């Protein structure tokens, strides 16, 4: 599903250059649930941004579902993101003046789906994350855990090949974090490929594989005995 070969990325600041990713090789098969860990500055956010087509690589190859991702202009990158990827962010990134269902329907709007079908699909995905009674609520009327569920429903709305979750539990307490991970595990159980960037060990252990980055390189890549979040909710 994801193939990364010899990935390098540097950032130039004035006369200085910061070499963030230093030749990463990384494959993810369809249906995996992978945690990406590393301290601040290890390169995990840069890697996620490249996987999410929010940033471009300097050297190497990135192949997503058989499609080489390279030399994309912003329009093509946006089209590919909408086709292939669903995003979940630590800060939820919901639009405050739009209801839960309108937030979930946004990717469908960009895909040109008509309003009636957008609402039907958005409501279906909100129901799947346990939020059907809240479809008309604004983000300000929802708890942190409910906001993240809306964000997960939005990530699912366009039926992406891969979901990218950037610190999805970072703004939540432990109980709510485990509820969100329970939901992510259930989505993965249905065959969805999911990558989770986290700095929390207990969250990483709820994935099936843990990849550790340090100083721009993968230093460890191990399969783990997955801890089911439902046992801790």
From TrEMBL:
<feature type="domain" description="ABC transporter">
    <location>
        <begin position="2"/>
        <end position="233"/>
    </location>
</feature>
<keyword id="KW-1278">Translocase</keyword>
<comment type="similarity">
    <text>Belongs to the ABC transporter superfamily. Macrolide exporter (TC 3.A.1.122) family.</text>
</comment>
<dbReference type="InterPro" id="IPR027417">
    <property type="entry name" value="P-loop_NTPase"/>
</dbReference>
<dbReference type="GO" id="GO:0005524">
    <property type="term" value="F:ATP binding"/>
</dbReference>
<keyword id="KW-0813">Transport</keyword>
<dbReference type="InterPro" id="IPR017911">
    <property type="entry name" value="MacB-like_ATP-bd"/>
</dbReference>
<dbReference type="InterPro" id="IPR003593">
    <property type="entry name" value="AAA+_ATPase"/>
</dbReference>
<dbReference type="GO" id="GO:0098796">
    <property type="term" value="C:membrane protein complex"/>
</dbReference>
<dbReference type="Pfam" id="PF00005">
    <property type="entry name" value="ABC_tran"/>
</dbReference>
<dbReference type="InterPro" id="IPR003439">
    <property type="entry name" value="ABC_transporter-like_ATP-bd"/>
</dbReference>
<keyword id="KW-0547">Nucleotide-binding</keyword>
<dbReference type="GO" id="GO:0016887">
    <property type="term" value="F:ATP hydrolysis activity"/>
</dbReference>
<dbReference type="InterPro" id="IPR017871">
    <property type="entry name" value="ABC_transporter-like_CS"/>
</dbReference>
<dbReference type="GO" id="GO:0022857">
    <property type="term" value="F:transmembrane transporter activity"/>
</dbReference>
<keyword id="KW-0067">ATP-binding</keyword>
<protein>
    <submittedName>
        <fullName>Phosphonate-transporting ATPase</fullName>
    </submittedName>
</protein>
């Amino acid at each position: 599903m994801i193939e990364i070969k010899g990935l390098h990325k540097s950032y130039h600041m004035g006369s200085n250059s910061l070499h963030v990713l230093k030749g990463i090789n990384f494959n993810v098969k369809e249906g995996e649930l992978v945690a990406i860990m590393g301290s601040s500055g290890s390169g995990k956010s840069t890697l996620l941004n490249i996987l999410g087509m929010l940033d471009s690589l300097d050297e190497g190859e990135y192949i997503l579902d058989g499609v080489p991702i390279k030399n994309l202009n912003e329009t093509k990158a946006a089209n590919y993101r909408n086709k292939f990827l669903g995003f979940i962010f630590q800060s939820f990134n919901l639009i405050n003046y739009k209801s839960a269902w309108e937030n979930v329907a946004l990717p469908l709007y960009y895909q040109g789906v008509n309003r009636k079908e957008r609402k039907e699909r958005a409501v279906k995905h909100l129901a799947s994350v346990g939020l059907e009674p809240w479809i008309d609520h604004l983000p300000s009327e929802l708890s942190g855990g409910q906001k993240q569920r809306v964000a997960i429903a939005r990530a699912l709305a366009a039926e992406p090949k891969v979901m990218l979750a950037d610190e999805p539990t970072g703004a939540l307490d432990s109980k709510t974090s485990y509820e969100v991970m329970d939901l992510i595990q259930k989505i993965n159980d249905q065959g969805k490929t999911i990558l989770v960037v986290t700095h929390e060990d207990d969250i990483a252990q709820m994935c099936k594989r843990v990849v550790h980055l340090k100083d721009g390189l993968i230093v460890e890549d191990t399969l783990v005995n997955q801890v089911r979040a439902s046992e801790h909710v």
